[in-house]
Write a structure and sequence with these properties.
The chain has 277 residues and is α/β, with parallel strands linked by helices. It has helices at 7-15, 32-44, 72-81, 92-95, 113-117, 121-136, 148-160, 190-195, 197-211, 217-229; strands at residues 2-4, 21-26, 47-52, 86-88, 140-144, 166-170, 234-242, 257-265, 268-276. It has two domains: 2-170, 3-Layer(aba) Sandwich (Rossmann fold); 183-276, Pantoate--beta-alanine Ligase, Chain: A,domain 2. The radius of gyration is 19 Å and the shape is globular. It binds pantoate.
Length: 277
């Protein structure tokens, strides 16, 4: 496994890389969810490239960029075990040199849900992912279904800007009790960790009601919200039952629906989702 920090150095290596090249972009502090992406990339490609870059432009003024968890040594050991070929670990100056002034904006699907609560977040994500795609030049790129809106935004960017690669969605990896794996889970104290299960419980309730024939989206939103509100440590940012392509809120579920939520447990903001249908 080679660790590369500069785009120029990577480009030289890229010329001799066996195709296809599978790419997993990450912000590090890897958990089983990330490793599932790497494993799928390993199974489907001749070369596997993973990037580790904590992207400053996707953090808002209230998000604590400096406090974002980091452990590069552990990350590298885990990636080596998974058979990663190249780790791309650029500095902030490498990705955003002085005078940087070009941005990628994806309209409409970024207005809602995470986009509404985190202004500028998806501009930062789309820009860094476009830069990483241009630098790494992969045939396939792997993203977790847990960040459902991010996945939709990236697919839209790839299609709208005619980027020549396939975006692969990988199912959410959960702890045995159902909590979706996230680097942010490390912020939870033991009581908050228990309280955080309310996200999975609410999604499971939606799944159960839907399985029994409930198709009224507002009823699902209400039932999930009522369940979450019973947990004193939980504060809802949003509970959504939306069209999985446009992300517009549904009144009636006719085909598939993306059920998603953002809930703050103490100071930690968690997101999760499932697809119905
Ligand atoms: O999902 C993430 O970890 C980040 O948003 C990504 C895609 C690596 C871009 O910084």
């Amino acid at each position: 496994m080679k660790v590369v920090t500069e785009i120029g150095e990577y480009r030289k290596l890229r010329k001799g890389m066996p195709s296809p090249v599978g790419f997993v972009p990450t912000m590090g502090y890897l958990h089983q969810g990330h490793l599932a992406l790497v494993q799928q990339a390993r199974a489907e490609n001749k070369t596997v490239v993973v990037s580790i870059f904590v992207n400053p432009t996707q953090f808002g003024p209230k998000d604590d960029l400096a406090a974002y968890p980091r452990d590069p040594e552990r990350d590298l050991a885990l990636l080596e075990k998974e058979g990663t070929d190249i780790v791309f670990m650029p500095s902030a100056e490498e990705m955003y040199p002085e005078g940087f002034s070009s941005w990628v904006e994806v309209d409409k699907v970024t207005d809602r849900l995470e986009g509404a609560f985190r202004p500028g977040h998806f501009r930062g994500v789309a820009t860094i992912v476009a830069k990483l795609f241009n630098s790494v030049q992969p045939h396939r790129a792997y993203f977790g279904q847990k960040d459902a809106q991010q996945l939709i935004v990236i697919k839209k960017m790839v299609s709208d800007l005619n980027m020549d690669l396939e975006v692969v969605a990988v199912p959410t990896v959960r702890d045995p009790d159902g909590l979706a794996m996230s680097s942010r889970n490390t912020y939870l104290d033991p009581e908050e960790r228990k309280a955080a299960l309310v996200l999975w419980n609410a999604l499971s309730l939606a799944q159960e009601l839907w399985s029994k024939g409930e198709r009224n989206a507002e009823r699902l939103r209400q039932e999930m919200s009522a369940l979450i509100q019973k947990e004193p440590r939980a504060k809802i940012d949003y509970v959504s039952v939306a069209d999985p392509d446009s992300l517009e809120e549904l009144s009636q579920i006719e085909g598939t629906a993306l059920v998603s939520m953002a809930v703050r447990i103490g100071k930690t903001r968690l997101i999760d989702n499932i697809t119905l249908g």
